[in-house]
């Protein structure tokens, strides 16, 4: 059965992971996000009751 022979497929998988790990991943990690997170203080909203005309 040719599916049990890992010789060509293991080499292809290994080279693709090495390409991703050493070439593509550092280039992708250098991108800055378009919307960086900011430190916002948590403030509570001031709520007021409604004046219902039928009560």
TrEMBL record:
Region: Disordered, residue numbers: 36-55
Topology in the lipid bilayer: Single-pass membrane protein
Encoding gene (name): ATP8
Pfam family, one: ATP-synt_8
Main location: mitochondrion
Cellular component annotations (GO), alphabetically ordered: mitochondrial membrane; proton-transporting ATP synthase complex
Family: Belongs to the ATPase protein 8 family.
Keywords linked to the UniProt accession: ATP synthesis, CF(0), Hydrogen ion transport, Ion transport, Membrane, Mitochondrion, Transmembrane, Transmembrane helix, Transport
Protein name: ATP synthase complex subunit 8
Compartment list: Mitochondrion membrane
Gene Ontology biological-process entries: proton motive force-driven ATP synthesis
High-level lineage: Eukaryota, Metazoa, Chordata, Craniata, Vertebrata
